[in-house]
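Marked as duplicate of an earlier ticket. Keeping the data here for the record.
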Amino acid sequence: NSLARRAMMNIGAVVVTYNPDIELLINNIQILEHQTFELDEVVIVDNGSKNIAEIRQIHSSVKIISLGKNLGIAKAQNVGVRHVMNHGSEFVLTMDQDSILPADYVENLIPFIRNENVGIVSGRFVDKNWGKTQSDRNPKGTDKEFSVVQDIIASGNIVNIRAWIRAGEFDESLFIDYVDFDFDYKLQRLGFKILEIRDVTFQHEIGSNVKPSSLRTIMGLKNQIIFDHSPMRMYFMNRNRLIVRKRYPEFGSMTRILMREILNLREIVLMDSPRSRKLIFAIRGIWDGILNRTGGVQNR
């Protein structure tokens, strides 16, 4: 039965790593290797992790591709997708290092991915740092099996490799943030659909949630979802949101995003230090986004 299913559908998995928690990574790899639907291959593409030696010691059948330095998530994903494609996979499961899937995850998504008009199928993610307020904003579907969505995070996606080729792969100039949404929008311009299967869930951690405080309440941000990020991530988030909105105005106004980015600068006072550096990098990101500059600050 397993061989029959594999003959009908070939799916590889690509996990991008960057200084991962080794214990968590081992757990995630084991879950991928023991999916109810047997994957063709599980590939780790590492972006210059300091603990690459420990990653190489993972005892499994996983293929490890080391890029030697941090070349960004888009580059790592493209390398991984090309690898599984060259080994016969028609579809690829894209994974972050800290996402946790149930054992029947791939099995439950298979019925939806074979449609030639579908570019991506994914489950519904739940962040382990969410409280009830945030979880209620991402409810379980009750009226239908799936939703056709405009954008979806990359982790947990089963991507049609034929659609990936037509879209011109993932945009490596974006480096990290909004790589997924840029790809989502490209797919839809080409006529592909993105499906989120509401009753299939997995765990995924977006970032460190800023804790409640009196200052947060005074600022009117008590119920706002605020994540803390490094200065580098502040740069790329602010820059790439504007660049992608400029590319795909049909999916959202760049002017509105720009106003939101400027307003959101106030959230930095609630984050951990170095707040001044985060503010500088965020403003630099907004400026480069307005000017449509692509390039990195990862080495600054």
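See parent ticket for discussion. Confidence is low (pLDDT under 50) at residues 132-138.
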